[in-house]
Each structure stands twice: as structure tokens, then as C-alpha cells.
UniProtKB/TrEMBL annotation:
<feature type="transmembrane region" description="Helical">
    <location>
        <begin position="311"/>
        <end position="343"/>
    </location>
</feature>
<feature type="transmembrane region" description="Helical">
    <location>
        <begin position="140"/>
        <end position="162"/>
    </location>
</feature>
<keyword id="KW-0812">Transmembrane</keyword>
<feature type="transmembrane region" description="Helical">
    <location>
        <begin position="399"/>
        <end position="418"/>
    </location>
</feature>
<protein>
    <submittedName>
        <fullName>MFS family permease</fullName>
    </submittedName>
</protein>
<feature type="transmembrane region" description="Helical">
    <location>
        <begin position="174"/>
        <end position="193"/>
    </location>
</feature>
<keyword id="KW-0472">Membrane</keyword>
<dbReference type="InterPro" id="IPR011701">
    <property type="entry name" value="MFS"/>
</dbReference>
<feature type="transmembrane region" description="Helical">
    <location>
        <begin position="12"/>
        <end position="30"/>
    </location>
</feature>
<dbReference type="GO" id="GO:0005886">
    <property type="term" value="C:plasma membrane"/>
</dbReference>
<keyword id="KW-1133">Transmembrane helix</keyword>
<dbReference type="InterPro" id="IPR036259">
    <property type="entry name" value="MFS_trans_sf"/>
</dbReference>
<feature type="transmembrane region" description="Helical">
    <location>
        <begin position="244"/>
        <end position="266"/>
    </location>
</feature>
<feature type="transmembrane region" description="Helical">
    <location>
        <begin position="81"/>
        <end position="100"/>
    </location>
</feature>
<keyword id="KW-0813">Transport</keyword>
<feature type="transmembrane region" description="Helical">
    <location>
        <begin position="278"/>
        <end position="299"/>
    </location>
</feature>
<feature type="transmembrane region" description="Helical">
    <location>
        <begin position="50"/>
        <end position="69"/>
    </location>
</feature>
């Protein structure tokens, strides 16, 4: 017989998780769509490879700077209001990319986009921690993070036709891409405001017994983590906690791989003879489609076994080996290997996030996620900018792939030092 807790969890998965997936798809479309317009920006506004890489990465500098302040405001206003604000503002800024006239305007808008998006991912992770028991968060996080792979999988087939609108109403195709994808984020953000609830107690779609069972399950887990916590620390001193530093380094390596491929995969695929914009878009979706399947399977395995660490290590090792081989393979075979690599580094992301959720005091989890996500996301600056410098200097991205392989291997080793018996305590004081 299905109990009220199982019924409540099932309702959360049906009502909230799909919405978050759609929101993340919009998020990834708006931050990664410049990968498909690089050649058009170079032709129309004179944006070179190094300038493109710097601007692509500048997003993550702003993201890191504004992540923790955004997180603190989310705690004040609640994830419902703050997620709506984030989505609407990033949609407006993304649409404003049509006004890019050169490197400086490109840099400015990418910085503003990062500032607008800051706090999105921690708000989602925090929402899961308040609405789902830990035994279900691995699968929920995997399904949510799969949204980024879904976005990457559809962005290619979507970008091709949008770019093909070049000249319609006298507007270049790359401008159509930014306007339409930015507008979509605004619409979804407004819909999310009507769909989300501020707490379990205010959810009219849960029965009284379901609310009680879900609240009790989460409170019991919170009480267990409170009993094993270290002494309290401030938000800024959390940066010096050994486990938090370890989380940041591991996530930094994961983000290096994800965003290097997000921004430069179309360029790598362009090496295939005869590939045009539509073909590149279709072929670039293959690694992300493979990643979706791998993420779901590893997320289920993590929930069933409770052994996310071995799975995370295996995913990172697979990503390292496949990325290294892709650097020396022919263009077609390199695409196959990048499909395997994507299965590794994309699966690593949701597997990774189950570990901080189990190690961190419930009161501190939002702040810890913000710190780890903001510093780890700096990999999103290093990867595209580094690849841009390498490509401009050598004409190829081979050495960049070598570096990604090494980073994944180092991250796999660092996971061995993560402890599951130490819970970071809640922050105290004004910071």
C-alpha cells in the first residue's frame, strides 16, 4: 500500500520537477546560445576567438560575484519570488544581446546576464532540500540537471532554423535567436510564479496527511544533521572549511568540462567535412542526448545504493579518458568520444550535488550551495576563455582537451578525500 509520504513525493515529482527542468532548459539556452553564433558575431561585429572566449567566460565572473548576495536575498524573499525575478531579468538581458556592436557591448551584456542568473541553481537545490527527503533528491537533482543536457540537445536543432531566419523582417538570424529565446524565459518565469508554492503547508495540491508526512520526514533528517554538526561558522568563514574547499575544487573541474564543451563543441564539430549550420546543430546535440540517459541511470543508482562517491569517481574517470582520446582522434571519431565524455562529466554534476546535501547542516545548505556553485562556476570562465586563447594561438583546441582530461582525473582523486561523517554547521552572524 502506498503511504502518504510516497504520494506526496510523487506529486512533487509530477508538479515541481518538470517545471524546474523547463526553467533550466531556458537557462542553458540563454547562457550557451552564443556557441552557435560565434562565426556570425565575428562576421557582423568583428568579434575574434579570444574576445568571444573572454566574453563567454565573463558571464561566470559576474555569476560568482553576485551568487552569494542573490542567495541571501532568496532566503529573505523566498525561492518562489526570487526564481521569478531571476528568470524574467535574464530573459530581458538575453534578448538585449541583439544590441551587440563590438567586444565592449558583448562583454557588458554577458556580465549583466551572469548577474541576472546568479542564485538560480542554489535556489533550486534549496527548494529540493525543503520539499524532498534525501532518499529522493538524487533522482530529482539528476532529472533537473538533465535539463541542461536537454537544452544542449535541442539548442543545435533549434539554433539552425533560427539562424536560417536571417533577413526576415530585415533582422539577422543571430538576433532572432537571442530575442525569441530571451522572450521564452520571461514567459516561463511568469508561469513559474503561479505554479510554485512558498512552503509545504501552503501547497493546496497536497492533502493534510501528505503535508504532515512530508514535513515530518524532512524534519527528522534535519534533526539528524543538526546532531552531528561542527561548531557554527560565518558564511565567509565557510570558505576556509576543508570540506567546502574540496567541494569547490571538484565542482570547478566538472564545470570546466561542461562549459568548454558547451561553448566550443560546435567549433569542434565544424571540423567535420561538409558540415553547415544545420548539420553542426544536429551533430552537436548527440553528446547531450547520450548524457541525458547516463544522468538518469546514475541518479537512480545513487538513490538506490546510497553510494554516490564511487559513481562520481567512475563518471569523472570515464570523462577523462574519453576527452583525452578525443583530442587525438579524427573529427568523426572525436565526436563519438565526446558523446562518451559527456555521459561522464554531465553525470558527475548531479552525483556531486547529492554529497553536499548530505554533509551540510539544513540551515546552512543554501549558503553552502551558493558558495560552492559560485566558485565552482568560475570553471565556466576559465574553460571558454582558455580555449579561445589556445585556438587563436594554435588554430586548434587539442591542448584544451588535454587540460580537460587532466582536470577530470584530478577531480576523481579529490573525491576520495570527501568525508561523509562530518556535517558543516549553520552560519551565524550578519554574514
Amino acid at each position: 500500500m502506498v503511504g502518504p509520504l510516497d504520494l506526496a513525493v510523487g506529486k512533487v515529482f509530477r508538479r515541481v520537477v518538470p517545471l524546474f527542468i523547463v526553467m533550466l532548459i531556458c537557462n542553458q539556452l540563454n547562457r550557451g546560445n552564443i556557441g552557435y553564433v560565434q562565426r556570425h558575431l565575428e562576421a557582423d561585429v568583428g568579434l575574434g576567438a579570444a574576445a568571444y572566449g573572454f566574453g563567454a567566460g565573463l558571464f561566470f565572473i559576474a555569476y560568482a560575484l553576485f551568487e552569494l548576495p542573490s542567495n541571501m536575498l532568496m532566503e529573505r524573499y523566498g525561492p518562489k519570488i526570487w526564481l521569478t525575478r531571476i528568470m524574467v531579468s535574464w530573459g530581458v538581458v538575453s534578448a538585449a544581446m541583439v544590441f551587440v556592436q563590438g567586444p565592449m557591448s558583448f562583454y557588458l551584456l554577458r556580465f549583466l546576464l551572469g548577474a541576472a542568473e546568479a542564485g538560480f541553481f542554489p535556489a533550486i537545490i534549496y527548494y529540493f532540500s525543503r520539499w524532498l527527503p534525501s532518499s529522493h533528491r538524487g533522482r530529482a537533482t539528476a532529472l533537473f540537471v538533465a535539463g541542461s543536457s536537454i537544452a544542449a540537445a535541442i539548442s543545435g536543432p533549434l539554433s539552425g532554423p533560427l539562424l536560417a531566419m536571417h533577413g526576415f523582417l530585415g533582422i539577422p538570424g543571430w538576433q532572432w535567436l537571442f530575442v525569441l529565446e530571451g522572450t521564452l524565459s520571461v514567459v516561463v518565469g511568469l508561469f513559474a510564479y503561479r505554479r510554485l508554492d512558498t512552503s509545504i503547508e501552503t501547497a493546496t495540491w497536497l492533502s493534510g496527511d501528505e503535508k504532515k508526512a512530508l514535513s515530518n520526514a524532512i524534519e527528522q533528517e534535519d534533526a539528524g544533521r543538526r546532531a552531528t554538526a561542527d561548531g557554527p561558522v560565518s558564511r565567509w568563514r565557510m570558505l576556509l572549511h576543508p570540506q567546502i574547499l574540496l567541494f569547490c575544487l571538484i565542482y570547478f573541474a566538472i564545470q570546466l568540462s561542461i562549459y568548454a564543451n558547451t561553448f566550443w563543441l560546435p567549433t569542434i564539430v565544424h571540423r567535420i567535412s561538409g558540415a553547415d549550420d544545420v548539420t553542426v546543430g544536429l551533430l552537436s546535440s548527440l553528446p547531450w542526448i547520450c548524457a541525458i540517459v547516463a544522468m538518469y541511470l546514475t541518479g537512480r543508482a545513487s538513490d538506490r545504493t546510497g553510494r554516490s562517491k564511487p559513481l562520481l569517481i567512475a563518471a569523472l574517470v570515464v570523462a577523462a579518458i574519453a576527452t583525452y582520446l578525443a583530442a587525438v582522434a579524427s573529427p568523426v571519431f572525436a565526436l563519438v568520444l565526446l558523446c562518451v565524455a559527456a555521459m561522464g562529466f554531465k553525470s558527475a554534476s548531479p552525483l556531486f550535488w547529492t554529497i553536499p546535501q548530505g554533509n551540510v547542516h539544513p540551515v546552512a545548505i543554501a549558503s553552502v550551495v551558493a558558495v560552492v556553485n559560485s566558485l565552482g562556476n568560475l570553471g565556466g570562465f576559465v574553460a571558454p576563455y582558455g580555449f579561445g586563447l589556445i585556438k587563436e594561438a594554435t588554430g586548434e583546441v587539442t591542448w584544451g582537451l588535454y587540460a580537460l582530461a587532466a582536470a577530470c582525473l584530478v577531480a576523481a582523486v579529490l573525491v576520495l578525500f570527501v568525508r561523509r561523517d562530518r556535517v558543516v554547521a549553520p552560519p551565524v552572524g550578519p554574514l
